Amino acid sequence: MLNEEQVTKNIIKSFSENIGFPVYTAEELEKMYKSFGVDPKSLDRRVFDTESMSHHLQSEVIKLLRMMKIEKDDFILDAGCGNGAPTRLMAKLYGCRIIGFDINPNQIQKAIDCDILEGVDFLIKRDIKDVHKIDYSENTFNKIFHNETICHWMNKEVALSGLYRVLKKGGIMGFHDWARGDRGDLNEAGGDFPGTYAEGVWFQHTIQETKSLLEQAGFVVLHTEDTTDIVDRGLRARLRELQMSKVYLKGASEEYFHKSIRYFKVMIETHYNYLRYGRFLCFKK
């Protein structure tokens, strides 16, 4: 039986350069952007879609941010921010203040380095925190965002209760997540796709189950949506683009290039059976 300490170790181990997908450094990303002829401070989709580990591409993340009605004066919490690509996208689009936290110190350092590279470090504060032990003051944030991270939360009831506490009355929370597939979850898919999925980090629910958990935590759910078809089309297009463009090799090793190709191929194979995607919008009364 897993405990929280073991899960934390598994997550920190999994989000490294040694698993199924590459996690680029700011230095590697800067080289890639130069080969693309792209300014990393811009909103060019290649910045977000290259550095982000999000399966929802920039266009879909922006759609969610618009649904959240984010404004410049908002104070936003990005829960489980990872390497921080969505946080930077928010900062570029709206110029709002954001705190992004993650349990993985390696990811936080990558996020800080990329914040500087993209010129938004003055808007973003990064913290190393466990979502199950949030210690921000009550009613601190008027918006909460998270992207494809609830699937890693072992005790969602505790985590969602903490997020509810720090969200102001009337505040909005929006997020994307990896949901359970029709045949099972990624723990069950691991045997079919060795070397791609880390063990002991997946706690997926169906979209309906996640909706129920939100309501149990006190949130009023405004919108739920199965985005699997959208993500599947996006990842297939992303794979084709990657296969046709060797420009990535100018910024990263050939090993990383082929690792990316394999990762996308395997991910697409798991869609529907072991992995669905959801979009959620809710608020605090």
Task: Please report the distance between the alpha carbons of the first and last residues.
Answer: 36 Å
Biggest sheet statistics: 7 strands, mixed
In CATH terms, the superfamily is Vaccinia Virus protein VP39
- Could you tell me the CATH topology label: Rossmann fold
What is the C-alpha radius of gyration, as a whole number of Å? 18 Å
State the secondary-structure class.
alpha/beta
Count of alpha/pi helices: 11
**Nearest-integer average pLDDT:** 90
Flag low-confidence runs.
Answer: none
Q: Domains counted in the coordinates: how many?
A: 1
Number of strands: 7
Name the strands of the widest sheet in spatial order: 3-2-1-4-5-7-6
CATH class: Alpha Beta
DSSP helix fraction = 40-55%
Q: Which architecture name does CATH use?
A: 3-Layer(aba) Sandwich
Instruction: Classify the beta-strand content into a percent band.
Output: 15-25%
Structure in words:
With 285 residues, the chain is α/β, with parallel strands linked by helices. It has one domain: Rossmann fold, CATH 3.40.50. Helices cover 42% and strands 19% of the residues. It has helices at 4-14, 26-36, 45-51, 58-67, 85-94, 105-117, 156-166, 186-189, 207-216, 228-244, 254-270; strands spanning 75-79, 97-102, 124-128, 141-147, 167-180, 220-226, 275-283. It has a 7-stranded mixed β-sheet, with helices on both faces. Strand 1 (75-79), helix 5 and strand 2 form a beta-alpha-beta unit. The protein is globular and about 50 Å long. The chain starts with a helix and ends with a strand. The mean pLDDT is 90.
